[in-house]
Amino acid sequence: MSAWRLGVLALAFVTGPLAAQFPAPPPEQLKGTPVTPARLPDGRPNWNGFWVTPNGLLEIYRGPSGITGQGPGANRPSRRQDIPALKSPYKERYEEAVAKAAAGELPDPVAACFPPGMPRMMGMVYGMEILQTPKIISITSEWQAATRRVWMDLEDHPQEDELDLTYAGHSIGRWEGDTLVVETVGIRDDVPLDFTHLPHSPKLKVTERFTQISPGVLVNDITIDDPDLFEQAWKYKLVYLHKPNLRLMEYVCLENNRNVDADGRTTFE
Rounded mean pLDDT of 249-269? Predict the structure, then answer.
């Protein structure tokens, strides 16, 4: 990780944990009709390269005196206001998490270098690298060095008794014109959906629709389906901006981790 990114990391721990949800995409970045993207030899849209989120940590202005502005972890709300009504027992679990967070008693496993998991990792604190092949699309978050693979040569997920539960889950994809549709299941039930520790049930399914709406702008329309958690599906958008001058860099969570004391113990403070 470069020196300035380590500096941003320090800022993020001062203002709040790194696993923060980015603000809603600016309306002007969601206008217009999809553009005709550059293409790979197989005719599919070419999204290879590095992408960042608007208002993300790589978009923070770095002036003459160093890093300025607040990272996305600053002044974050302790309770989501944009989610559908919750069902029991997950409603009670969420209320307990919110109360613990307000009291400063809710440790975040990501601060101890556990992966953020899906769909939280798609917030892409430090941006992401997309690598495309006909059979696999790899999406790597520089934050926590978390990688997910979208299997383009599979039509179905493994049967329930053969499905390994993982942080990133099992993702299969298909093209609908120039839109990449990705369906993910098999996410560990101890992986929260977001930074407020929103829980989920084993029935969780995450559907993403990636569409390039203008040059260098990729929109991810996300639908969270969990009939045991929500009264209805939860939908939101994430936006990514192509940065051809940036490259994925090594991220070692344990290096410079403000949440590990001198004796190597995890403090979560």
Answer: 66
Tell me the average pLDDT across 48-67: 70
186-to-203, 209, 210, 221 alpha-carbon distances in Å = 9, 19, 21, 20
pLDDT digits over 18-33, tens only? 333 444 455 555 555 5
Read off the amino acid at residue 16. G
148-153 long-range contacts (CB < 8 A, ≥24 apart) are: 148/118, 148/121, 148/184, 150/180, 150/182
Whose tokens are 């929260």? That residue is 192
Whether the CB-CB separation of 3 and 62 falls below 8 Å is answered with no
List the one residue out of 177, 173, 144, 165 whose CA is nearest residue 255.
144
Q: Which token pair is 84?
A: 């559908």
Q: Shortest CA distance to 49 belongs to which of 144, 140, 175, 118?
A: 140
